[in-house]
């Protein structure tokens, strides 16, 4: 016999319908009650849609599985898919040309102009699409751990996957902070399942990722790749921190020593090793991708990490591997349909497989993600597809400015749509796809801070050795880790150095645990003539790329680059 207060085991679905779903509805309606007028004025049909604000992770799992074809992996992470687009679409990024920001923006191929009318058309198109969805997700969070410089971000989207992604990547508010959240400083309308109208003025395709600094809004159409939201927030911070707050925003990871409290910044584009190298068991992780170097120290912009998963193993990257559990999102990762175990070596969907997880999933993360101490070391990471740059070089102040402005690396497969093999590229400030102001403004702020705080700078190549891409091999991670350890211990400050030819770089003659032929690339190549050819080829590319900036830098900085007769 079943007593009145009991529920028969055979009817759990009835329990959910009468109890859990009713509770969900009451919970979310109560939370967003004070914002009903805002959503109504923005154009949302409040009589039709159900808004779910800062929904619990478990509920986002349920919705993603029920409505989006997501599955739960064997480790508890949610596996979801971004559809046709599996990387960013930089050619479809637009910045609205308006009076409040037009004189600060570095206009060109990175920041392409869009007129205000076209933005309004796309914004209305996005809201119209969201109004057709049964569930609309709202996530309110923060960008920036330092309360003095943080901004309030609101994400409005139609996929539970996107809501969970931003739950992981933004800084999650406490219940008290959420209750008093108020008006957001920046809003993202993500209608990525719905295409842009490519016949609208200024559109180049059915994909559009656009930011309006006057309205402080972002609209996404035609791409479901979650990374667009993450980088949209970074673009806004890349604008606001220097312009509004006078602080230096950086595309970098950062960690701090447990014993000495020394802070290291790692600059580099996707695929160069920022996430991997900053996850160090002997150091506390401040963050893996986006930071601000402020007048008082360093703070993370994000509340999570977005790690590449290709060839991921517990042996090579235990911190990242073990962070893939309940609450994390595996993006575009192939899995065994029987065991639900992810196959990190399978790149049949994309090479840009990713995992987004809260930063506290890293055991040695520093929470809160900020330090009131200036950096001791800056490590500029590059992935050299030519295989000629040494694995580590000590840079002079002028060389640091030169290489920061040049930002040489190779785009690796999958980090952008259509990249199938490494492509040599020069990404100024190591963040050209996300840069907003003229590179000189960031470079000047960096040089001033480095000089003021006597910061050492190192160029570390995590790319190819013994030959270029196709003939050589990627520098073993164990050697790169050993080099980074030598930076942190101070060992490299006391090393003997030799000059590396055309590039004029100072490279150590000995690092314990790293073979001599790895330290000096000329020794690793069997074909010396081919090596010299590739060195001069890359040097010429540096000179050509730097012409864009040499008119705005001191002569000593220009001469700090490679010299080819």
UniProtKB/TrEMBL annotation:
Protein name, per record: Phosphoenolpyruvate carboxykinase (ATP)
Catalytic activity from the UniProt record: oxaloacetate + ATP = phosphoenolpyruvate + ADP + CO2
Record bears the keyword Lyase: yes
A GO term for molecular function: phosphoenolpyruvate carboxykinase (ATP) activity
Enzyme Commission identifier(s): 4.1.1.49
Gene3D superfamilies registered for this protein in UniProt: 3.90.228.20, Phosphoenolpyruvate Carboxykinase, domain 1, Phosphoenolpyruvate Carboxykinase, domain 2
GO biological process: gluconeogenesis
Family as reported in the entry's similarity comment: Belongs to the phosphoenolpyruvate carboxykinase (ATP) family.
Keyword Transferase on entry: no
PANTHER family the UniProt entry points to: PHOSPHOENOLPYRUVATE CARBOXYKINASE (ATP), PHOSPHOENOLPYRUVATE CARBOXYKINASE ATP
NCBIfam families to which the protein is assigned, alphabetical: pckA, PRK09344.1-2, PRK09344.1-3
Annotated InterPro entries: PEP_carboxykinase_ATP (IPR001272), PEP_carboxykinase_C (IPR013035), PEP_carboxykinase_N (IPR008210), PEPCK_ATP_CS (IPR015994)
Keywords: ATP-binding, Decarboxylase, Gluconeogenesis, Lyase, Nucleotide-binding
GO cellular component: cytosol
Highest taxon listed in the record's lineage: Eukaryota
One Pfam family it belongs to: PEPCK_ATP
Pathway involvement of the protein, from the record: Carbohydrate biosynthesis; gluconeogenesis
């Amino acid at each position: 016999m079943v007593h009145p207060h009991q529920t028969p085991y055979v009817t759990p679905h009835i329990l959910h319908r009468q109890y859990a779903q009713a509770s969900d509805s009451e919970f979310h309606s109560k939370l967003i009650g004070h914002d009903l007028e805002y959503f109504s004025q923005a154009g949302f049909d409040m009589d039709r849609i159900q808004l779910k604000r800062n929904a619990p992770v478990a509920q986002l799992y349920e919705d993603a599985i029920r409505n989006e074809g997501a599955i739960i992996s064997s480790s508890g992470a949610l596996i979801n898919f971004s559809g046709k687009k599996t990387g960013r679409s930089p050619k479809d990024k637009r910045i609205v040309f308006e009076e409040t920001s037009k004189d600060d923006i570095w206009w060109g191929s990175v920041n392409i102009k869009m007129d205000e009318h076209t933005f309004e058309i796309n914004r209305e198109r996005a809201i119209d699409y969201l109004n057709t969805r049964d569930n609309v997700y709202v996530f309110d969070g923060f960008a920036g751990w330092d309360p003095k410089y943080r901004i309030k971000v609101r994400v409005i989207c139609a996929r539970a996957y996107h809501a969970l992604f931003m739950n992981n990547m933004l800084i999650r508010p406490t219940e008290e902070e959420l209750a008093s959240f108020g008006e957001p400083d920046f809003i993202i309308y993500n209608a990525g399942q719905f295409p842009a109208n490519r016949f609208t003025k200024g559109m180049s395709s059915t994909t559009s990722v656009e930011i309006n600094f006057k309205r402080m809004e972002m609209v996404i159409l035609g791409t479901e790749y979650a990374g667009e939201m993450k980088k949209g927030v970074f673009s806004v911070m890349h604008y606001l921190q220097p312009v509004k707050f006078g602080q230096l925003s950086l595309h970098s990871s950062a960690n701090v020593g447990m014993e000495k409290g020394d802070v290291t910044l790692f600059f580099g584009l996707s695929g160069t090793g920022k996430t991997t190298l900053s996850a160090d068991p002997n150091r506390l992780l401040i963050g893996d991708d986006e930071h601000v170097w402020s007048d008082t120290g360093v703070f993370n912009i994000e509340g999570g990490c977005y790690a590449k998963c290709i060839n991921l193993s517990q042996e090579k990257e235990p911190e990242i591997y073990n962070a893939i559990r309940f609450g994390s999102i595996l993006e575009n990762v192939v899995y065994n349909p029987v065991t639900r175990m992810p196959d990190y070596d399978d790149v049949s969907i994309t090479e840009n497989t990713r995992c987004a997880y809260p930063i506290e999933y890293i055991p040695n993360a520093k929470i809160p993600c900020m330090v009131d101490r200036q950096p001791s070391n800056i490590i500029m990471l590059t992935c050299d597809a030519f295989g000629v740059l040494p694995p580590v070089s000590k840079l002079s102040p002028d060389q640091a400015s030169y290489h920061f402005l040049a930002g040489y690396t190779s785009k690796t497969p999958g980090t952008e749509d259509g990249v199938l093999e490494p492509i040599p590229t020069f990404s100024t400030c190591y963040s050209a796809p996300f840069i907003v102001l003229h590179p000189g403004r960031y470079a000047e702020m960096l040089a001033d801070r480095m000089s003021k705080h006597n910061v050492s700078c190192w160029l570390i190549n995590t790319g190819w050795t013994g030959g270029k891409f196709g003939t050589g091999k990627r520098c073993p991670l164990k050697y790169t880790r050993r080099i980074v350890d030598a930076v942190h211990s101070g060992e490299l400050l006391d090393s003997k150095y030799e000059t590396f030819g055309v590039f004029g770089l100072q490279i150590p003659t000995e690092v314990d645990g790293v073979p001599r032929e790895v330290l000096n690339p000329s020794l690793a190549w069997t074909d010396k003539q081919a090596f010299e050819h590739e060195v001069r080829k890359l040097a010429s590319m540096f000179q050509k790329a730097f012409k864009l900036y040499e008119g705005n830098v001191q002569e000593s900085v220009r001469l700090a680059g490679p010299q080819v007769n």
